[in-house]
Amino acid sequence: MQFDPFATAGDSLTAPAKNAFPITLHVDQDLPMATKAVYIGTGGDLVIRAVDSEEDVILKNVPPGAILPIRVRAVRDSSTAADIIGLA
Fold first, then answer.
1. Successive 10-residue mean pLDDT values, the chain, 88 residues
2. Residue 81 domain-assigned?
3. What CA–CA distance (Å, rounded) separates 64 from 86?
4. CA angle 13, 15, 82 (to 5 degrees)
């Protein structure tokens, strides 16, 4: 049996993530890759810059365990949410 029977399936925004990586909050640096979604381990405010945005926005009171289907290019260190995982 093949380990990943979906290995040859095409990737899309609606397909499950193939990659997960811890997000380090930073004042002005972009992530190593854009996300399809972000997982919030510890709830709080999340300050992000979306892939096609020119400015940061604050997502208030994101609950723990939330998966936000947002293509993010940066997560700022002014966020109070923590234990954030990028899904790509």
1. 74 86 97 97 98 97 97 98 97
2. yes
3. 15
4. 75
User: Is residue 51 a part of any domain in this protein?
Assistant: yes
Residue 23 · residue 31 · CB < 8 Å: yes
In a domain, 46, yes or no: yes
Q: How many CB atoms lie within 10 A of CB 61?
A: 11
Q: Is residue 56 part of a domain?
A: yes
Q: Which domain holds residue 58?
A: 30-87
- Amino acid 11: pLDDT: 83
Contact 55, 73 (CB under 8 A): no
How many domains, the chain?
A: 1
Residue 65 to residues 5, 19, 44, 51: CA-CA distances in angstroms? 28, 18, 11, 22
The confidence score (pLDDT) of residue 84 equals 98
